[in-house]
């Protein structure tokens, strides 16, 4: 319910499912509309807590911190931090120090992603990136009443074929024939037959 309780430190217990929802808006099924943050990263603290230089990157203490939205808290750091990391112009820790209530507020989720890269001989002449991806997904969670892609009636996927030429894969046949059953649709609530 507060900024401090929603600031998760590296090395501490971290929720498996991160779900943000609006308690005042429901979808047509009665579920709260929201979003989910899905991690694709294995970041960790950059510097140990207590190092004087770590003050300049206090955002790196947290894989996730949630704060109330404020116009004067636009970035978690500053380019000037490199000049004075001991007393940085922007201190992320100050964003959560006041421990404001975050219930029913406009929120900012500060997500830290990254991975550890130890330079090695295979980096020469360039550092390959396959397998070194990081990031996160912001996914709708009960936000829509149904899969929003259903509204895309002419969805296509374009991929290269064996010769490198574009191959178009359509989700619907080019010539639409009779593809709907004459029987009315019925569902009894199970996956078994009727």
From TrEMBL:
<keyword id="KW-0801">TPQ</keyword>
<dbReference type="InterPro" id="IPR000269">
    <property type="entry name" value="Cu_amine_oxidase"/>
</dbReference>
<dbReference type="GO" id="GO:0005507">
    <property type="term" value="F:copper ion binding"/>
</dbReference>
<dbReference type="GO" id="GO:0046677">
    <property type="term" value="P:response to antibiotic"/>
</dbReference>
<dbReference type="GO" id="GO:0009308">
    <property type="term" value="P:amine metabolic process"/>
</dbReference>
<keyword id="KW-0560">Oxidoreductase</keyword>
<dbReference type="InterPro" id="IPR049947">
    <property type="entry name" value="Cu_Am_Ox_Cu-bd"/>
</dbReference>
<dbReference type="GO" id="GO:0048038">
    <property type="term" value="F:quinone binding"/>
</dbReference>
<keyword id="KW-0479">Metal-binding</keyword>
<dbReference type="GO" id="GO:0052597">
    <property type="term" value="F:diamine oxidase activity"/>
</dbReference>
<dbReference type="InterPro" id="IPR015798">
    <property type="entry name" value="Cu_amine_oxidase_C"/>
</dbReference>
<dbReference type="GO" id="GO:0008131">
    <property type="term" value="F:primary methylamine oxidase activity"/>
</dbReference>
<dbReference type="Pfam" id="PF01179">
    <property type="entry name" value="Cu_amine_oxid"/>
</dbReference>
<dbReference type="InterPro" id="IPR036460">
    <property type="entry name" value="Cu_amine_oxidase_C_sf"/>
</dbReference>
<keyword id="KW-0186">Copper</keyword>
<dbReference type="GO" id="GO:0005886">
    <property type="term" value="C:plasma membrane"/>
</dbReference>
<feature type="domain" description="Copper amine oxidase catalytic">
    <location>
        <begin position="1"/>
        <end position="150"/>
    </location>
</feature>
<comment type="similarity">
    <text>Belongs to the copper/topaquinone oxidase family.</text>
</comment>
<protein>
    <recommendedName>
        <fullName>Amine oxidase</fullName>
        <ecNumber>1.4.3.-</ecNumber>
    </recommendedName>
</protein>
